[in-house]
Specification:
About 40% of the residues lie in helices and about 20% in strands. The protein contains 17 helices and 15 strands. Helix 8 links the parallel strand 9 and strand 10. Helix 6 crosses helix 7, helix 13 crosses helix 14 and helix 15 crosses helix 16. The N terminus is likely disordered. The structure holds NADP nicotinamide-adenine-dinucleotide phosphate. The site of NADP nicotinamide-adenine-dinucleotide phosphate has 33 residues, from helix 6, helix 7 and strand 9.
Length: about 500
């Protein structure tokens, strides 16, 4: 479970590496070589930390393509990296004190400038789109497997908005949701970057689509092909009595039990994301991830999380949908590069309608507009404090129960010098109490559930510490941990066998 969770958390916040094939780092040109303009940030913080700097222009190796970037789109992904939120991801992906990579941006479209000698599918002058970390720059180098040909009927701004949002929507619907023609699909957050792609792709795959958005976006979502649109300011879809085969959740604003209520018995819930820049800054979506994992084995409906995989086949699939007119990227606003801070601020509001594009036409500008040097030095919370808390809290959670167990055991031994001590029993008891409280929180039944769970586990743990085997058995079962089941079964078996002889 721990490994699974760690993997999920890591992958969630290192989406960049997967999305953009960042393993293939930009090949730096020899020093003194050509230079280019790029957006960089050296501290976590608001968009004020962004700077337009001159850096070395990359040189493609034999297996890379050099692309002159024409347009890049803004994703929530950008502010996650720029702000370094959730803080827990700083330890796992963003960099503990400072950004590991100073470059930002992922989705781009542009024109091929040069190709390595092993490149067969592209030539200079081709119009392409794809994804690469550090896309807010005049040039990127990229492996051809992360590139696709830009359809002639869409603009660079539209093509540059496809990779993250389009792939996420496609793979969420097709691979995780496994949607079939005629199935009922609900898209929560239908008017955003992912949602506007999801509505159109779901329609092209033959689904009956319900989009959820606010009143001002109802017409937009309907124009994208949604069969039904729910204005969340007037109606709560989780109370509508309707049932769906697949829910694509771009917002994460309902409890898992509410989503389950409107899912068919074998329906699939796909968590794409959710949460604004000021929500859950410490842990982000990790609580939902844990709840989803805990719930998974016990229910017939499938609860899934989503991390898109970048591959040429799917980029080409999306290009074909765009070429045929079945999918048209929705561009809300377009900003010049000099206004990138404003563009990211706009996406941070969580109110973007479709995608926000940034064009590179003014890349030769020497400074960025809309900056505030007073806040440009870093995040609102000191990075040292973040690291201290992120390391200190788990340590305290691990160590405090051990300390408490030693104290309780010491007192027990003082009062009962002739009896065997029970250090690990006390430790297990304290941990059971904590686990009971955590379980209560996850049950989403309010404060009463938390108290009841905490008390039930605490009582069981107390009797366990007093060596009552029934409490041991009960706690083992209630650990919901197959490893604990097996270990304790073997242990009890042996103890009973010893007692019998
Ligand atoms: N797992 C992955 O691989 C992956 C990939 C991409 C994105 N994501 C995550 O998925 C989430 C969505 O991404 P995005 O690019 O679509 O974000 P976005 O473009 O910023 O989403 C903005 C849209 O969300 C809508 N919205 C806000 N609150 C809503 C609510 N309560 N109910 C319904 N709609 C609501 C807004 O519509 P109104 O103004 O009408 O409220 C707006 O149109 C983000 O958290 C992002 O980090 C995850």
């Amino acid at each position: 479970m721990k490994t699974h969770l760690q993997l999920l958390i890591t992958t969630f916040f290192t989406a960049a590496l997967l999305f953009a094939g960042a393993a293939l780092a930009q090949t730096p040109s020899p020093s003194g070589g050509p230079r280019m303009k790029a957006i960089v940030y050296h501290n976590f913080g608001s968009p004020d930390v962004l700077q337009l700097e001159e850096i070395e222009k990359p040189v493609p190796n034999d297996n890379q393509v050099l692309v002159k970037v024409q347009a890049v789109s803004v994703n929530p992904f950008d502010w996650h990296f720029m702000e370094g939120v959730p803080y827990i991801a700083r330890l796992l992906a963003f960099g503990p004190l400072k950004p590991t990579s100073p470059r930002l941006g992922a989705d781009f479209a542009g024109t091929v400038e040069a190709v390595g000698k092993n490149i067969t599918q592209f030539k200079p002058g081709d119009e392409v789109f794809g994804g690469k970390i550090g896309a807010y720059a005049e040039y990127v180098v990229i492996a051809e497997k992360f590139l696709a040909t830009k359809p002639a009927n869409i603009t660079f701004e539209q093509a540059g908005s496809v990779q993250i949002a389009g792939l996420t929507a496609l793979q969420g619907l097709r691979d995780k949701g496994k949607i079939q023609p005629g199935q009922k699909v609900l898209i929560n957050g239908a008017s955003g970057g992912v949602g506007t792609f999801a509505v159109q792709i779901a329609k092209s795959l033959g689904a009956h689509v319900t989009g959820v958005c606010s009143g001002r976006n109802v017409e937009l979502v309907r124009s994208l092909g949604a069969d039904q649109v729910i204005d969340y300011t007037k109606e709560d879809f989780t109370k509508s009595g309707q049932r769906y085969d697949v829910i694509i959740d771009n917002v994460g604003n309902h409890s898992l039990s509410e989503y389950r209520r409107v899912l068919n018995p074998n329906g699939k819930y796909v968590l794409i994301g959710g949460g604004g820049v000021n929500d859950n800054r410490w842990t982000g979506p990790i609580g939902v991830v844990i709840k989803t994992l805990l719930l998974k084995p016990f229910i017939s409906q499938e609860m899934k999380m989503m991390l898109a995989d970048v591959n040429k086949e799917d980029l080409t699939f999306l290009a074909d949908l765009m070429q045929s007119g079945k999918v048209t990227p929705v561009i809300d606003k377009t900003y010049p590069l000099s206004e990138i801070r404003e563009a990211i601020r706009y996406v941070e509001t969580g109110r973007a309608r479709g995608k926000v594009a940034v064009t590179l036409k003014d890349a030769s500008q020497t400074s960025l507009a809309g900056g505030n040097s007073a806040t440009a030095s870093g995040s609102t919370i000191g990075p040292v404090l973040v690291v201290f808390v992120l390391i200190g809290v788990p340590l305290a959670v691990l160590i405090l129960p051990v300390v408490v167990a030693f104290i309780l055991n010491g007192r027990f031994r003082q009062r009962n010098p002739d009896k065997r001590g029970y250090r690990w029993g006390y430790y297990f008891s304290v941990m059971s109490f904590v686990a009971g409280l955590v379980l209560g929180v996850f049950l989403e039944c309010g404060a009463m559930a938390v108290i009841v769970c905490g008390v039930v586990y605490a009582v069981l743990a107390w009797f366990f510490a007093k060596r009552h085997r029934w409490a041991w058995v009960a706690l083992t079962i209630l650990s919901f941990n197959p490893i604990a089941w097996i270990i304790n079964l073997i242990y009890l078996w042996r103890r009973w066998a010893e007692a019998a002889t």
